[in-house]
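Homework help board

Subject: predicted structure for assignment chain

Our instructor gave us this sequence and asked us to write out the predicted structure in token form, then describe one feature. I got the tokens but I'm not sure how to describe them. Can anyone check?
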Amino acid sequence: MAIALLAACSDGGTAKQRGCDTQGLPTTVAYSRVGGVDPDLTSVDIHAPTVACDAPVVVWVHGGGYEIGDKAQQMKHKVPLFNQRGWILVSVNYRLTRPGDPMSARYPDHYTDVAAAVGWVRHHIADYGGDPQRIALLGHSAGADIVSNVLLNPAYFADAGMQPGDLACGGPLDSEGFDKVTAGAADIRGLQQEWVAALGNAPDYLRSTSANWLIAPGLDIPPIIGVVRGSDRRRTIEEAFLAKLDAVGVPTTAIDARTLTHHEVNSRIGAPNDSVMTPPLMRFLDACLER
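My token output:
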């Protein structure tokens, strides 16, 4: 299904040309149009400080098992966390899978949508005072699985006119999907059914959509942050993901999130008094974005 990238919505030049004032700019923008698809599913929410001049940009991809979720979820703490630093937060929607509906999203729709959204941000975030050379791509759960595929398969960003190395850094946070071969050996909370519904049309999808099987020398991959938590199987998968990146020369950072639930990995980011997720994540983002 063809995707047409949209031009930026602007009412008077870039934020820099208007004195870095971001007030009055549209806060929800469609990054593409797909026939027969609700346009909200291919749109982004842009949370910019009142004044932004060449500001770093954090792009966030929500989770939900490829089937549910929205760009508005879990933004309560993230927006002030990043805006108070003078950074822009962009939250992404992508097409979702409705099990049993062959017209809903299937491989590679989720990946191409997120890559197209990042491409839109790179080409148009200057209108909001953002720096297109300083973009971090983060995601949680299924969003982490999507982010890892987009970062490790250059074909997705090639369609958006860029490559993974154009990003400052990435953060796929908490997913067993890094190795669906191992995780799929047991039916863990329905994960296998979710992957079949969303990705099962891909040849050998257990491997071809698993980050741990995509890592190879010579890929242009930015620094990566991940978390390690959960069951023995999940920790093994997440540790292997970071170790394999290290082995091919990609700088990595691990957050020890063993005290947190899967939900808390997301909800604790920016939350008052959080000491597990926010400090190490912000140190990592400072290092890759504040240059």
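Reply (TA_rk): Your tokens look well-formed. For the description, you could write something like this. The chain has one domain: 4-223. That's the kind of observation they're looking for.
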